[in-house]
């Protein structure tokens, strides 16, 4: 196969062979088996929005063609490699079924490694029932909600697969998602996303594959304690209903996610080395998706080949604090992502089609240890909890979400249109200034006004909701070059350990951890 990159393609083009033919001045009939491998939207000029694509194709006399056209490359496919074990007696327990834990357990199971995946929440179908019930009634299930359960917090999000990390494992992850039910367009879109409605089936199918390959999956099973001797792991305790089960893993992978605060506390008390980490807090902003489309695409806003437009903004305020958008969800909705009694936290979610009326994004400002109450390693968690309790009270103390018109927050003239905020189980108009310190409010407000200079109208005709407090983990675990913590036999991974941010980077981290384990086991088998 030959690859050609950075080809401008009009939105209405259907014949890719013709496009390549014109690029190379080669007969269209000689070009075979064309495959679209990358597609991005170029909307820098609103009067000429188009795609920028990369293609792979077959053609006779490849060597001669490549020498003649320097823009062409010969495609060398390097499949993802992992060692397959012939036999071993070790038992690996992976705690947490988010992308890091899921891909770690998936890779271990298909390599014939004995593995048990332990998840404190419910399997995804039961989890969805619990979340829907919460949205309907306001009854929160503490271990089965938007944060906890099969697939982790990412299952009920937008399912973004973008990452700045350059890694050979990305293609394998995308192909694995597709093999288990994701839309094939994630293989070529520049900004791929799965969507919550598809992710529910993807994580379920990956779980079934783990079981098919000999792995075990335990739901409604919470890690509540670990036991060590001479800085080495000996036992763990799992709570299942009213039962406490003692297990003796040879290795324990901690993919606990960024919201398992009770587990953080337990691990800290048991001697794992943890330090506080900067993260970001702020609000969710909602606009009409039609407004975002019109700004980004101009006269092409309603073109059937264009998906709901996104944006990514970052500004620096006069105080030196950065304010930026995060987890932008085109054609999505804001959801109540509470997981603790007496706390409200919001996030964004989109289905695969991204066809809801509103667009939403987090507007965040970075906070760090200097903003926390003290220097305790878990002080960032306390900072988050205080914000979430304030949001709970501002919302009425019944898990309704506090909301505010952006004009009221900024004290500017009211806009002409009203964006309807439909966060469930309900919303309450409130003064969001009461959530944050004066310094954070000042930074957010200045940031919104600066963003309005980049997208005219951004700071009007919008609704704000809060609080967005779990953009990333507030801690970072120590681990060495083999991914082990200061207590040997324990492997902290993923976003909850402070080593990833999002589905793709977490999945990569999970795969890397599985490789360290498999390589070690493979050496033992050969010795």
Automatic annotation (TrEMBL):
<dbReference type="InterPro" id="IPR023753">
    <property type="entry name" value="FAD/NAD-binding_dom"/>
</dbReference>
<feature type="domain" description="FAD-dependent protein C-terminal">
    <location>
        <begin position="278"/>
        <end position="471"/>
    </location>
</feature>
<dbReference type="GO" id="GO:0016491">
    <property type="term" value="F:oxidoreductase activity"/>
</dbReference>
<dbReference type="InterPro" id="IPR028348">
    <property type="entry name" value="FAD-binding_protein"/>
</dbReference>
<dbReference type="InterPro" id="IPR036188">
    <property type="entry name" value="FAD/NAD-bd_sf"/>
</dbReference>
<feature type="domain" description="FAD/NAD(P)-binding">
    <location>
        <begin position="91"/>
        <end position="262"/>
    </location>
</feature>
<dbReference type="InterPro" id="IPR049516">
    <property type="entry name" value="FAD-depend_C"/>
</dbReference>
<dbReference type="Pfam" id="PF21688">
    <property type="entry name" value="FAD-depend_C"/>
</dbReference>
<protein>
    <submittedName>
        <fullName>Uncharacterized protein</fullName>
    </submittedName>
</protein>
<dbReference type="Pfam" id="PF07992">
    <property type="entry name" value="Pyr_redox_2"/>
</dbReference>
């Amino acid at each position: 196969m030959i690859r050609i990159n950075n080809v401008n393609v009009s939105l209405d083009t259907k014949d890719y062979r013709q496009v390549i033919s014109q690029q190379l001045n080669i007969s269209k009939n000689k070009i075979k088996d064309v495959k679209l491998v990358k597609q991005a939207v170029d909307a820098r000029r609103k009067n000429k929005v188009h795609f920028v694509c990369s293609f792979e194709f077959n053609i006779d006399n490849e060597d001669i063609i490549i020498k003649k056209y320097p823009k062409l490359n010969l495609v060398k496919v390097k499949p993802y490699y992992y060692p397959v074990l012939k036999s071993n007696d070790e038992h690996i327990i992976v705690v947490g079924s988010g992308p890091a834990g899921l891909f770690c357990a998936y890779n271990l199971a298909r390599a014939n490694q004995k593995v048990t995946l332990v998840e404190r929440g419910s399997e995804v179908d039961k989890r969805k029932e619990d979340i829907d019930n919460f949205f309907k009634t306001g009854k929160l299930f503490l271990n089965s909600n938007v944060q906890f359960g099969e697939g982790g917090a990412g299952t009920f999000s937008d399912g973004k697969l973008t990452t700045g990390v350059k890694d050979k494992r990305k293609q394998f992850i995308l192909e694995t998602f597709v093999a288990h039910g994701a839309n094939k367009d994630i293989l070529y879109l520049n900004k791929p996303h799965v969507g919550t409605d598809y992710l529910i089936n993807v994580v379920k199918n990956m779980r079934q594959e783990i079981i098919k390959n000999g792995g075990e999956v335990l739901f409604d099973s919470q890690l509540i304690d670990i036991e060590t001797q001479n800085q080495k792991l000996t036992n763990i305790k799992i709570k299942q209903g009213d039962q406490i089960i003692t297990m003796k893993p040879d290795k324990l992978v901690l993919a606990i996610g960024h919201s398992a605060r009770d587990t953080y506390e337990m691990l800290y008390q048991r001697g794992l080395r943890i330090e506080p980490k900067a993260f970001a807090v702020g609000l969710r902003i909602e606009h009409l998706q039609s407004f975002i489309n019109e700004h980004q695409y101009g006269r092409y806003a309603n073109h059937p080949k264009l998906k709901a437009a996104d944006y990514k903004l970052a500004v620096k305020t006069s105080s030196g604090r950065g304010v930026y958008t995060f987890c932008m969800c085109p054609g999505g909705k804001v959801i109540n992502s509470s997981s603790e009694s007496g706390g409200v936290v919001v996030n964004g979610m989109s289905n695969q089609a991204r066809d809801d009326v509103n667009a939403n994004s987090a507007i965040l400002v970075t906070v760090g240890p200097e903003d926390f109450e003290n220097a305790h390693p878990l002080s960032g968690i306390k900072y988050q909890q205080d914000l979430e309790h304030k949001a709970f009270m501002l919302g009425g103390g019944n898990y309704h979400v506090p909301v505010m018109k952006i004009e009221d927050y900024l004290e500017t003239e009211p806009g002409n249109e009203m964006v309807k905020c439909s966060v469930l189980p309900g919303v309450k108009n409130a003064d969001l200034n009461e959530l944050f310190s004066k310094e954070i409010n000042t930074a957010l407000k200045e940031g919104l006004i600066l963003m309005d200079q980049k997208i005219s109208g951004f700071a009007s005709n919008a609704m704000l909701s809060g609080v967005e407090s779990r953009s990333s983990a507030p801690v970072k675990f120590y681990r060495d070059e083999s991914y082990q913590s200061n207590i040997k036999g324990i492997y902290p991974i993923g976003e909850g350990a402070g080593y990833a941010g999002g589905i793709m980077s977490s999945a990569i981290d999970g795969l890397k951890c599985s490789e360290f384990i498999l390589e070690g086991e493979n050496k033992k088998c050969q010795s």
